[in-house]
């Protein structure tokens, strides 16, 4: 015979007829301990629980006898409730990741914009100074001097960690400083002779010299993809050169020499294999090279061009002193800033992405200089420049492709 259970509840609750009931715990309240329950064979007495603490509702599951041990059903409900709360954590974490990614994208976009903007201002103001003051060595020396002052301030104020460099490291960095000095000097010599757009069109030949020097000194054999990208670069530069209005051999040769020295720096950095530690990252290496370039450039400038940056000399040349000083300072600041930002970008993206960005930068500089200086451009010249820049973009995309290993 089955015994029927009778519930004796507090006076605040009405008497209920026996039926299939289940006792649900309110999610906010805690489970009652066994000391709060008086259990008899047929009567369950709950003496001191408030009306809002417990609810009675019908259930399809059979009513089980109570004991001091928590019910598996309530344990399952608590577990499910815990799992539900736990699944909400990845959603908030995912939102945090998305906001973090968005912040990084915006930061990277700002760096690219600064990189391009500093390049535009540097080329415009630098061209104006070189056109008024025919002293490319002096202008180059001023740019290294301003950069050295900024680096010194940065280290003294602990804005960037001052490195500890050994004599062996300085000896290894010296060849890099030499070719860095020559590269910037030749660029300024070219900008003083030909238009900004033509100088940068010729400088699009850098991949050609990179492939040539890497094959000669590093033994790196170019892939067919790379060789295929070099063809439009060379053809485009040749086509732009024969149709350039401002063409002269001094400007053309200087730009080519700049390509040779700049790519020699890249090859030397691999050949010399400068030992780096935590204090010698790319920005620190560039800062050391800038200081060494100032030391290298100063005596050569004084013995060849003399001192041509004095107010008396500038006035004798019929040029406004204040304008030359202001534009030279802006050009020097932008010169140092765009190279610093370039290394900051390189630390955040892959070399391929950086190369593509550098190609786009060259396009931006050419277009902006043509618009600002109102440089006459023939259709043939524009077509040749476009072909060369397209080849540079193709080269930046395919240079990372490795040839498939030959199977036996």
Written overview of the protein:
The protein has 408 residues and is mostly helical. It has one domain. 66% of the residues lie in helices and 4% in strands. The protein has helices spanning 72-132, 136-156, 167-193, 196-202, 206-218, 224-242, 249-272, 282-304, 311-316, 321-346, 351-373, 379-398, and strands at 6-8, 21-25, 38-39, 43-45, 54-58. The protein has a 3-stranded mixed β-sheet with strand order 1-4-3, with no helix packed on it. A hairpin with a 3-residue loop joins strand 3 (38-39) and strand 4. The radius of gyration is 38 Å and the shape is globular. The N and C termini lie far apart (86 Å). The model is unreliable at 1-77 and 79-89 (pLDDT under 50). It comes from Arabidopsis thaliana (Mouse-ear cress). It is found in: Plastid, Chloroplast membrane. It is a multi-pass membrane protein.
